[in-house]
């Protein structure tokens, strides 16, 4: 990567997330399925790392629920991230939420 | 899943439902067909577990009618749920409804 | 189905219909073709059983004309129904209609 | 069909037409091609039998020009009709038209 | 065709054109390619015979430029015509045009 | 072509261009690739010959940048032209442009 | 290319970028993968060379993040560039950005 450190900004409705390490699911046979190669139609959680100025649904550090199939990936400073759009988020897990649903991550 | 309990909130028009156990249909040969693997084009009922702030059509605990084909699934605290959007709901069964249609679940 | 009787309400533009028994057409060879397995592109009549609050085109008890191909089906209290949307209705047969077209069902 | 005579009304933009008997085209070899099985991309004429309240382009008895491919058909009192939508009509032949185009059916 | 002469009117944005006889192009091998079976993507000229009341781009007698592929055809009084929509016209050749482009048909 | 010279006018957003002779690209093996049969996804330059009254992006004589794949062609007075729409133009090269980009054709 | 130097202007929302030389990624086996032939779904960075008057998200010299698959390419003065549209940009790296995300290129 380029030496002089250029700060990166997400545009508009983009949400950059990092797959949770323990988000790997164990297939029934115990084989580790990395989050991004999850069964299609199976939603997964990831942590918000950066987001565009138009994003309202979540904040940096929140966990968000999305479908991992057919996703853009990007590598920044050696780390792999997934590029999402706000409308692709189904749910958010965060201390800020009142616990109305009784569901916890 | 992560230990510290983060309350989960559904976004916008999302409706999280749990398939009714007895919603499994018996194929003519008596084989149990799990709700989610229902014949295409066959609508099924499920119970609302959580919903986004924009949802008007139903409330938590209601039974809703939807098509099970091509659905997103998510596992929370070991339970399997189905992620829907309000516009995909065809009907609602709830004590709140006046019994105008004469149809009961 | 669940024992405590929950009244069912159709949502928005949904129209629940029941295929007319005698709506089965006899193929030229006299074989009974059940309404729902009608030749594609062939419209059939059915009776309105329930409808959402936004439906204006018909009322419960009217006969409506629609295309049976690629329809959602639902079973309520052991009866099979077809789930339609108002925009899929081509015509209505009802005593309320003046007999302008000279066509009768 | 059901005995008590229910008057039929077309909805919105629907136009019910009856193929003209003589509208059958003779293929070059003299074989009779029924109107509805016309060569694709070949427009045909038919007579308006009934129309929804939103239809402005024609009136009952007019001849209308449309593409016969991929059409809905319906049988009423033993007669076969074709169900069209107003936007699918290309031209109208009627005494009401001034003869501006110099074209006559 | 039916005997009593019903004047024909085009609807809305329809433009009825007649392929120019000499518009046939000679393939390199001298074989006559009728205008309507022109190579795809090759535009052709034809003469306006009739048009709907919403058409502004041309007048009866003008030459218009369009793509002949995948067109509706109609036969009126034994003549073959092509049915177009105004938005499918690319250019018009007419005495009314000032000769700004320096291009002539 | 027809003898009496009818001036041709482009309609609406159409832009008629003539491929630049030297716009042919030499494939690595030195084989001449005519502009119109350029590699897909490779943009080419051409000169504006005529344009509809709604076109703002360029003027007659400008060079415009567009994708040559899947284009309409038309022959006028023995010359071959390409028919474009304004929205398909990516860039314009013209003396009128200030040289802000530092890029020259 | 043509001798008289015509200044080139991008239109509307176009963004012309030049792939960063070091943007080539080494496949695990050390084989150099040119930026434009990047694995699908893998976003890459490039430098903005020119942009249309409607572009707000970036400025000439910024680094922008986009998906390299299925892109238009253009050659100007012997250099290869990629033609993008503003809405296809996911993120921008530039000194102008405050370092809110903590991510640097």
From TrEMBL, chains A, B, C, D, E, F, G:
The gene is groES. One of its GO terms (molecular function) is protein-folding chaperone binding. Pfam families: Cpn10. CDD domains: cpn10. It comes from the Bacteria. Keywords: Chaperone. This is 10 kDa chaperonin. Belongs to the GroES chaperonin family. InterPro entries: Chaperonin_GroES, Chaperonin_GroES_sf, GroES-like_sf. Together with the chaperonin GroEL, plays an essential role in assisting protein folding. The GroEL-GroES system forms a nano-cage that allows encapsulation of the non-native substrate proteins and provides a physical environment optimized to promote and accelerate protein folding. GroES binds to the apical surface of the GroEL ring, thereby capping the opening of the GroEL channel. Heptamer of 7 subunits arranged in a ring. The keyword Chaperone applies.
